Automatic annotation (TrEMBL):
Homodimer or homodecamer. In contrast to form I RuBisCO, the form III RuBisCO is composed solely of large subunits. One of its GO terms (molecular function) is oxidoreductase activity. Pfam families: RuBisCO_large, RuBisCO_large_N. The modification N6-carboxylysine is found at residue 177. GO terms for biological process: AMP catabolic process; carbon fixation. Belongs to the RuBisCO large chain family. Type III subfamily. The lineage of its organism: Archaea, Methanobacteriati, Methanobacteriota, Stenosarchaea group, Halobacteria. It comes from Halobacterium jilantaiense. Keywords: Carbon dioxide fixation, Lyase, Magnesium, Metal-binding, Oxidoreductase. This is Ribulose bisphosphate carboxylase. It is an enzyme of class 4 (lyase).
Length: 415
C-alpha cells in the first residue's frame, strides 16, 4: 500500500514515456495557491487522486498523472496510457477536461494542446477520406473545394432549398450544405429535402458534367442520426454532416462506424465550440477539439478563416497544419473556411490558408444582387483569378458576376 496526496502528482523533472498522453495547460492558481500546488491538484483530479490523502494498492499509483515543466501560468501533465480506455474519447475527455475545469484551486484553466501517443491515437479509426474527398467523391483536384449554405439559415421550403442547391451547383459550387440548425423542422422536412435535393443534384451533374454532392445535416439523437445516414446512402449521397460539439463525441464515434459501412464522408460543424475555446485562459482550445475530431474520424472540420470572416478564430493556420500533418498513418482532415466570406476575400484567404481547404460561402453567394447562380459564378471566378495569378479587380473586368460582387462587398471582412 502507498499513501498518495496532491504533492505526489508533481515531478518537475519528469521525462514523459512514449505511451504517455502529454497535455499542456495554462492556468491561474486560486487565491493563496502556488503554481506547484495547483499543478498537483490538476494532475491528481484529472487522473486518480482526490482532495483527501489516500492509502492505495501500489499498482494504483502507476495510473497517476504527473505534473511537470511548471512555469508561470503553464503546466504540462503526462497521463499513463493505461489510465484510458482505448478508443473511448468521452472517457479520455472526462479525465483531461473534466472536473479540473471547475476546481476552486484554479481561477481559470485551459487545455491548450495534446501530444497523442501512438498506441492511444491508433486505437481510433481516424478519417476515412480526409482531403481525398476532393478526388474520390468530388472533381476538385488542385483547387479548393467549394460549398454553400442556403441563406436564410432556416425558413426556406423544401422546394426552395432544393432549387437554391441546383442554382449553386450549376453556378460551379461542389457542395450544397445544410445549416447547423436545419434538421427536420415542419417547413422543411428531412426526408423530402434529401430526396428533392438529390434529384436536383443529379440534374446539375448532367448539365455540368461535374460531380456534385450535399453535406446533409443528420444532427439528432444517435438512433435517429443512423436512420438519416441510411437515407442519405440510399439517395446516393457521399456525405453526412454532424454538429459534433452539440451531439458529443460518443455520437460522433457511432456515426463514424456506420458511415464507413456506406463509404460516407463526415462533415463536422463545430457549433458551440466557442463556448469552450473563445477565452484564451479557460476551457478547451480549438486545437484540441480539432485533434479529437481527427482521431474520432471526421473528414472535414470548420477551423476558421484566419481572421478574414465574421467570426473570431484562433490559430487557423496552426490547426490546419496539425490536421494535415503525420499522425501514425491516420488520414488527414480537410479544413473548412467559413463565416462571412465572399468573392472579395478569396485571394487573402487562399494566401493565408493554401488551397487544400473547403471554402464555404453562404451570404456571400445568396446575397449576390443577381441571385444564387451569379453568386456561385462570382466565387468560382475569384478562385480562377487566384489560380491564374490575376488580381480579382482585373479579372472582374470581363467577368460580370465577380464585378458585381466586388462592387457590393469590396474585399473587406464583415462584422
Ligand atoms: O451560419 C453561419 O454563420 C455559417 O453557415 C456561415 O454562413 P455565412 O457564409 O453566410 O457567413 C457557418 O455556420 C459558420 O461559418 C460557422 O462558423 P465556423 O466556420 O467558424 O465554425
Ligand atoms: Mg451556419
Amino acid at each position: 500500500m502507498t499513501g498518495i496526496e496532491y504533492a505526489d502528482f508533481v515531478d518537475d523533472g519528469y521525462e514523459p514515456r512514449d505511451t504517455d498522453l502529454v497535455c499542456q495547460f495554462v492556468l491561474d492558481p486560486g487565491e493563496g495557491m502556488s503554481m506547484v500546488d495547483a499543478a498537483g491538484r490538476v494532475a491528481s483530479e484529472s487522473s486518480n487522486g482526490t482532495w483527501a490523502a489516500l492509502n492505495v494498492p501500489d499498482r494504483v499509483t502507476e495510473l497517476s498523472a504527473t505534473a511537470f515543466d511548471i512555469g508561470d501560468g503553464e503546466v504540462t501533465v503526462a497521463y499513463p496510457g493505461d489510465l484510458f480506455e482505448a478508443g473511448n474519447m468521452p472517457q479520455i475527455l472526462s479525465c483531461i477536461a473534466g472536473n479540473i475545469m471547475g476546481m476552486k484551486a484554479v481561477d481559470s484553466i485551459r487545455l491548450v494542446d495534446c501530444e497523442w501517443p501512438e498506441e492511444l491515437a491508433t486505437s481510433f479509426p481516424g478519417p476515412q477520406y480526409g482531403s481525398d474527398v476532393k478526388t474520390e467523391i468530388l472533381d476538385a483536384e488542385g483547387r479548393p473545394a467549394t460549398a454553400t449554405v442556403p441563406k436564410p439559415k432556416v425558413g426556406l421550403s423544401t422546394e426552395q432549398h432544393a432549387q437554391v442547391g441546383y442554382d449553386a451547383w450549376v453556378g460551379g459550387v461542389d457542395l450544397l450544405k445544410d445549416d447547423e440548425n436545419l434538421t427536420n423542422q415542419s417547413f422543411n422536412r428531412f426526408e423530402d429535402r434529401v430526396k428533392q435535393s438529390f434529384e436536383m443534384r443529379d440534374r446539375a451533374e448532367d448539365e455540368t458534367g461535374d460531380r456534385k454532392d450535399y453535406l446533409v445535416n443528420i444532427t439528432a439523437d444517435t438512433e435517429t442520426m443512423l436512420d438519416r445516414l441510411e437515407l442519405v446512402a440510399e439517395q446516393g449521397g457521399g456525405f453526412v454532416m454532424v454538429d459534433v460539439i452539440t451531439c458529443g463525441w460518443s455520437a460522433v464515434q457511432t456515426v463514424r462506424e456506420h458511415a464507413a459501412d456506406h463509404g460516407l464522408a463526415i462533415h463536422a460543424h463545430r457549433a458551440m465550440h466557442a463556448a469552450f475555446d473563445r477565452l484564451d485562459h479557460h476551457g478547451v482550445s480549438m486545437r484540441v477539439l480539432a485533434q479529437v475530431a481527427r482521431l474520432t474520424g471526421v473528414d472535414h472540420i470548420h477551423t476558421g478563416t484566419a481572421g478574414l470572416g465574421k467570426l473570431e478564430n484562433e490559430d487557423t493556420p496552426g490547426i490546419n497544419e496539425w490536421l494535415s500533418g503525420d499522425l501514425y498513418g491516420l488520414s488527414d482532415v480537410l479544413p473548412v473556411a467559413s463565416g462571412g466570406l465572399h468573392p472579395g476575400t478569396v485571394a487573402p484567404l487562399l494566401d493565408a490558408l493554401g488551397q487544400d481547404i473547403i471554402v464555404q460561402v453562404g451570404g456571400g453567394i445568396h446575397g449576390h444582387p443577381d441571385g444564387t447562380e451569379a453568386g456561385a459564378r462570382a466565387l468560382q471566378q475569384a478562385i480562377d483569378a487566384y489560380q491564374d495569378g490575376v488580381d480579382a479587380a482585373t479579372y472582374a473586368e470581363d467577368h460580370p458576376e465577380l464585378a458585381t460582387a466586388l462592387e457590393k462587398w469590396g474585399t473587406g471582412s464583415p462584422r
